[in-house]
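I am writing to request your help with a piece of structural work I have in hand. I am sending you one protein, given as its amino acid sequence and as whole-number tokens for its backbone shapes. Kindly check, if you would, that the fold set down in the tokens agrees with what the sequence suggests. You will find the record immediately after this paragraph:
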Amino acid sequence: MVNKDIEDMKSRAKEGDIAAQVELGISYLYGYGVDIDYVEAFIYLQDAAIKNDGEAQLHLGKMYENGWGIKEDLWTAYSLYRRSYKVHTEGSRKAISNVIDKLADAIPITGHLSIANDFTITACCERLREYIRMGKIIPFEDDDESNLYLSNTNRTILLKECPFCGECVEHTH
């Protein structure tokens, strides 16, 4: 990519061309034809992600997952990957799996079950943590607080207690 191409893409991106925003964001993120610049990558990818572009959501998620130019936030990465998956973006399913593993590994087993609005979770038992890893228990932000849901093929059930040991879910702030 030569500077003329970059300037043309910048012009198109400024006019709202989503494809140009995504291409520029990816170029700045990985250094394709330009120096790596996480600030520029974030700006272009966020602009396209807001418009529901799956590729932009996927790469913006990678920035959050890895802390590239921004504070690492695995839950934001997870949310972006899920949005990307909903529009059938290649690579999003694997990204979801990888970030869920990281999230599950970070959940301490304390014998007490709690979830905070920032999705900080403590697990009462290993089985609960493994169900989160498998996607069978899903943290989700409701209108007023974060909750855990048991998910199966027919429905999603709000958890009030651990289905394995009976520990009540505590909401912390």
Notes: The mean pLDDT is 93. The chain has two domains: 3-102, 108-172. DSSP finds seven helices and six strands in the chain. The CA atoms of residues 50 and 91 lie 19 Å apart.
